[in-house]
Design goal:
By secondary structure, the chain is an alpha/beta fold. The chain is built from six helices and seven strands, in the order H-E-H-E-H-E-H-E-H-E-H-E-E. 39% of the residues lie in helices and 27% in strands.
């Protein structure tokens, strides 16, 4: 993970703390090496749900949580984020994070896809009552497709119900961070 990515991750954490309080339920939709899961676990008063399709990512996250002595209530889910509804169908989500792409230091041929990510975003959108961050990586082929799909999805959000902040470097292949805050609860 390069310095730019670390900075975007740190920015996402700071942005969440500034825009959300008292998270009862949080989701790390792509737990990877556990950095976002540790952050969410430190700030969640209820339950944290961590998803990843790779067993290596689940084990990395579990180790990070234990290493940080985080004994909050969490569930590590070895499944795609697109299946989120199967696990948290009736809960309101306070905070959700997605750090898309591939597992750093893992198999780079295994990536999140625009298809699974769009399904996950649609499900999270239905249950989200707080904030969400989405970190996209257009620097690889699947990441470029996924980033375009995420941007199109965000463009469909009602500006009366959402505030959106975007952070990215000037280079077109640089990672892009979307920070979304729900400002109006659906009627």
């Amino acid at each position: 993970m390069n310095q730019e990515n670390v900075s975007l991750t740190a920015f996402a954490h700071q942005w969440i703390l500034k825009n959300a309080t008292n998270f009862q339920f949080a989701v790390d939709a792509t737990c990877g090496n556990g950095l976002d899961s540790v952050f969410l676990a430190k700030n969640t008063t209820g339950k944290l749900f961590c998803f990843d399709i790779q067993e290596e990512a689940i084990q990395n996250t579990k180790a990070k949580l234990l290493q940080n002595h985080l004994h909050c209530q969490y569930q590590l889910i070895h499944d795609s984020h697109e299946n989120i509804k199967q696990y948290i169908d009736t809960l309101s989500i306070d905070v959700a994070m997605m750090n898309l792409g591939y597992l750093p230091h893992g198999d780079h041929s295994i990536t999140t896809t625009h298809t699974s990510t769009m399904k996950a975003l649609d499900e999270i959108h239905k249950q989200l009552k707080g904030v969400m961050t989405i970190l996209c990586y257009p620097g690889h082929a699947q990441g470029k497709i996924e980033t375009q799909a995420v941007a199109k999805w965000i463009a469909t959000l009602d500006s009366k119900q959402w505030t959106i902040e975007t952070k990215r470097a000037l280079h077109p292949d640089s990672p892009i961070l979307y920070c979304l805050k729900k400002t109006c609860v659906d009627l």
